[in-house]
């Protein structure tokens, strides 16, 4: 059995098994090196404006409500937050009401791949305030774009980044999320450094090439037990 994280293995109650994390493909790695200035110009974002990005299902389990409340606590600060994804009908109305009071917020909705890449290129930091995660592919892709991660220590997230590459907050803590966002606004050079360290961490163990080699080893061992 192969699991995408040690957390997932334990969650399944499996006493053993191989952990092979998700991997980011070469196309995403190359897209992350495209022009940030061009992406910002296309989205009408100023060159020096600090931009946060949320990408995923706009739900309670993803911490979307905490994100909106955190932003309300940052009124008066200069920044922009982009959100991509969709909210389920049962939660959407409440979120849209909160969004209406946030002038520095853009809900871009569900994007195709090229538009998502443009949003990631235009951003400086990535927000993952989830309550539940497995091995979040979106976090890995954000790391490819050198975005400073603000994350919760849920699921397999701590297996991907540590405190050298990310800022950790408690799940469900909107005030803590606001403080973390404010700390990066106060120190944009630290946000840049976090993003670069996150990219190096990705290159060390979460590329598609690394993932493929690990799967090849699993299949080789299954076909020829004891020889690998």
Describe the fold and architecture.
This protein has 228 residues and is an alpha/beta fold. The protein has one domain (25-204): Glycogen Phosphorylase B (Rossmann fold, 3-Layer(aba) Sandwich). 48% of the residues lie in helices and 14% in strands. The protein has 11 helices and 8 strands. It has helices at residues 6-11, 26-31, 36-43, 64-72, 89-99, 113-122, 137-144, 157-160, 174-186, 188-205, 208-223; strands at 2-3, 18-19, 51-55, 80-84, 105-109, 125-128, 148-152, 167-169. Strands 5-4-3-6-7-8 form a 6-stranded parallel β-sheet, sandwiched between helices. It has a two-stranded parallel sheet with strand order 1-2. Helix 3 crosses helix 6 (113-122), helix 4 crosses helix 9 and helix 9 crosses helix 10. The chain is globular, with a radius of gyration of 18 Å. 37% of the residues are buried. The model has no long low-confidence stretch (mean pLDDT 95).
Quick overview:
This protein has 228 residues and is an alpha/beta fold. It has one domain: Rossmann fold (3-Layer(aba) Sandwich), CATH 3.40.50.2000. The chain is built from eleven helices and eight strands.
Question: How do the helices and strands line up, and which of them pair or pack?
Answer:
Layout: E1 2-3, H1 6-11, E2 18-19, H2 26-31, H3 36-43, E3 51-55, H4 64-72, E4 80-84, H5 89-99, E5 105-109, H6 113-122, E6 125-128, H7 137-144, E7 148-152, H8 157-160, E8 167-169, H9 174-186, H10 188-205, H11 208-223
Parallel strand pairs: 1-2, 3-4, 3-6, 4-5, 6-7, 7-8
Helix pairs in contact: 3-6, 4-9, 9-10
């Amino acid at each position: 059995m192969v699991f995408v994280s040690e957390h997932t293995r334990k969650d399944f109650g499996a006493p053993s098994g191989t952990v092979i994390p998700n991997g980011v493909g070469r196309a995403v790695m190359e897209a992350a090196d495209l022009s940030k200035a061009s992406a910002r110009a296309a989205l009408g974002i100023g060159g020096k404006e600090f931009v946060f990005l949320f990408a995923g299902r706009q739900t309670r389990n993803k911490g979307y409500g905490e994100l909106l409340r955190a932003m309300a606590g940052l009124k008066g600060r200069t920044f922009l937050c982009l959100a991509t994804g969709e909210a389920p009908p049962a939660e959407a109305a409440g979120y849209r009401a909160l969004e209406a009071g946030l002038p520095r917020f853009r809900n871009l909705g569900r994007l195709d791949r090229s538009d998502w890449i443009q949003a990631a290129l235009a951003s400086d930091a990535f927000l993952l305030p989830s309550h539940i995660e497995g091995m979040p592919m979106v976090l890995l892709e954000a790391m490819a774009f050198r975005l400073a991660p603000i994350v919760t220590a849920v699921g397999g997230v701590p297996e991907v980044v540590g405190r050298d590459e990310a800022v950790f907050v408690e799940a469900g803590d909107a005030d803590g999320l606001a403080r973390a966002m404010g700390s990066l606004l106060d120190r944009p050079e630290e946000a840049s450094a976090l993003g670069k360290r996150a990219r190096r961490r990705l290159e060390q163990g979460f590329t598609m090439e690394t993932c493929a080699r690990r799967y090849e080893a699993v299949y080789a061992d299954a076909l020829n037990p004891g020889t690998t």
